[in-house]
Design goal:
The structure is a single chain. By secondary structure, the chain is α/β, with parallel strands linked by helices. It has two domains: 2-86 and 277-295, no CATH class; 97-264, 3-Layer(aba) Sandwich (Rossmann fold). The protein is 40% helix and 13% strand. It contains twelve helices and ten strands. It has helices spanning 2-7, 19-33, 37-40, 45-51, 63-79, 116-130, 155-163, 177-191, 225-228, 232-240, 253-264, 286-295, and strands at residues 9-10, 81-82, 84-85, 97-102, 136-141, 145-152, 196-201, 217-221, 244-245, 278-279. A six-stranded mixed β-sheet has the order 6-5-4-7-8-9, sandwiched between helices. A two-stranded antiparallel ribbon has the order 1-2. A two-stranded antiparallel sheet has the order 3-10. Helix 2 (19-33) packs antiparallel against helix 5 and helix 6 crosses helix 11 (253-264). It is elongated and about 95 Å long. It starts with a helix and ends in a 9-residue tail after the last helix. The model has no long low-confidence stretch (mean pLDDT 84). Pfam families: VWA_2. Keywords: Membrane, Transmembrane, Transmembrane helix.
Length: 304
Amino acid sequence: MMDALANFHFLRPLWLILIAPAVALWWLERQEADTTARWRAVMDAELLARLTVGGDSRRRLTPGDLLLAAWVIGACAVAGPTWQRMPQPFAQVARPAVFVLKVTPSMGERDLAPTRLDRAREKMEDLLKLREGAPTGLVAYAGSAHLVVPPTPDPAVVTGMAGALAPDVMPRQGDALADAVKLAAKLIADGGQGGSIVVFADTAPAVTPLDLQGAPVFLFPMLPPARASAAPALRAAATALDAEIIAPTIDNADVEGLARLLATAGPPPPAPGEELRWQEAGWWLTPLLAVLVAVWFRRGWVLA
């Protein structure tokens, strides 16, 4: 629902200018139709209402009001309201993703054999096999965030660079999760093809809500399954990042489910050489216009 509101716009917004003269004509018509306006300056309002036929009751809906409503709705319909992109038949099927890998001494713990960091590399490799041909980038972080590999369709480059990462090569110690996620979101935005962010981490600091420009985030806990489900710090970070937590499993069920999510998460990328096309929704207003027009066939309505 929030995505639809964020994407709502008009394809032809200049048509909305027609609403201004409609409102002006409606206001002038009301002023001219009020035959008692000149008497209000010299006569008590309560007395004037008693001396006027129908003066103590006012029509709630007039033909002018109906015409204004039809005019506004018609202008909005012609302006082309939309909030959904049209599917691109020739768009690339594989959507980009950026892996964000935490490289700190805590990732050397052996509660996940052989280590948490090694298990993260294994999960990344399994995920890359399921995403064959999909552009994938890599960001590593500890006390600072660093781009390791920009999105590339070659999985060997990603796995090779991930295998060379170790806590002692990181320039600063710490937990700069927010900086790493923002860097990944920038990579996706600069690519212009959409995409998702996958975070591989065992713990997380306090994170404030970030503007990730619509990039979906998935948090893959590098903890034993029993502990991953009860890690309050990771859950708090997932809430702040609006991220979905991927429950780790001892088999490949977790990466298989994540691969399916990455294939459909976020808006579809545009086809090469094509602009994004939006699905026009103005025709949804035609039934309402038909109802308003039907009221004009009511006996005595126009002359009322």
